Amino acid sequence: VKQGKSSRIFEVNIQVAVRIRPLLPKELLRHHCECVKVIPGSAQVTVNPDRLFTFDHAFGPSASQDEVYRACIQPMVRSLLDGYNATVFCYGETGSGKTYTISINEIDVATVHMSYLELYMEEVRDLLDLPTNQKGLNVRDDINGNTGN
Ligand SMILES: Nc1ncnc2c1ncn2[C@@H]1O[C@H](COP(=O)(O)OP(=O)(O)OP(=O)(O)O)[C@@H](O)[C@H]1O
Question: What does the domain layout of the chain look like in residue ranges?
């Protein structure tokens, strides 16, 4: 991992956070139970229960949007306003809480160009472009190595 240019903000360029959402009412009704747990005060999670995984951040079901935002996103927003590029990428199975988590926004002092893409089953969809978002986008490289669709 490369050292971040803006060492004031980042020690590394890429950080990985895991968030475990609370069980939904329908899951509680079906007596589902949590099989992934955060070790309190750490960035580690246990799975079932003897496998241990370490991340840069780990949030359990009681973590608020604010807590996730402050730890993971706010430093990126500051860095963005300093002129650096930043990407927040949510990965997880259907219903795991990607949309819920990514819907955190707090920039009201600048014009922001944002794209909202979904990568699912190797198809890319532009979620902000209703006419095309039913069919996948074709991603191509041109002769100069630029990527477009
Ligand atoms: N941290 C959370 N606290 C409370 N509810 C949550 C949390 N995360 C997700 N949920 C709820 O769980 C459900 C699924 O979340 P969400 O739609 O964000 O999943 P997703 O990963 O975007 O799913 P998909 O890939 O199918 O679009 C929603 O009802 C959402 O409100």
Answer: 17-102
